[in-house]
């Protein structure tokens, strides 16, 4: 009985530790210590304004938060668009397309494969049409071929692929998983 009791405790501890480790790894896929905010509309009247007023965010709002909230170390705006076809040769898909800034990759743990890179400040300054592909979007569009340096059509606009995200575990998302985004 003592042997079986000891074995049962060890098995339960091993299961619990393995579950904790796997859960931590999958939460890491979304990002660590992050807060995600969405625009919306008001639910209460205020100062003569009615219910249902749109509340939107601007880049100035992000700059104000980073200045006034000392525990916030980084902010990335994110603009998401759905239902825009993305094409490479005869392959077409409609992933979530996310407009971001360079710090986004660090915040959300979006790491490019070794032969590519992430968006940088020069891309923003020069308004370059560059894209990072989620690993499953890359596989759908290019198969096993290298995607970096190739041109994909986003709608009717050409974008140069500068990186492909390394595969990661991500069990939660707020619009789509990173593997299915551009």
Protein model, in words:
With 182 residues, this protein is an alpha+beta fold. It has helices spanning 2-30, 59-68, 103-108, 121-125, 135-142; strands at 40-41, 54-55, 79-81, 86-88, 91-93, 97-99, 130-133, 151-154, 157-164. Strands 5-4-8-9-7 form a five-stranded mixed β-sheet. A two-stranded antiparallel sheet has the order 1-2. It has a two-stranded antiparallel ribbon with strand order 3-6. A hairpin with a 2-residue loop joins β8 and β9. The mean pLDDT is 84.
| Residue-averaged pLDDT | 84
Largest β-sheet summary: 5 strands, mixed
Count of alpha/pi helices:
5
**End-to-end gap:** 57 Å
Indicate the proportion of strand residues.
15-25%
How helix-rich are the residues, as a percent range? 25-40%
Could you list the spans in which at least 5 consecutive residues all have pLDDT below 50? Answer: none
Helix-strand makeup class: alpha+beta
Strand order of the largest sheet: 5-4-8-9-7
List the helices and strands in order: HEEHEEEEHHEHEE
Number of strands: 9
User: Given the C-alpha coordinates, what overall shape results?
Assistant: extended
Alpha-carbon Rg, integer: 21 Å
In short:
With 182 residues, the chain is an alpha+beta fold.
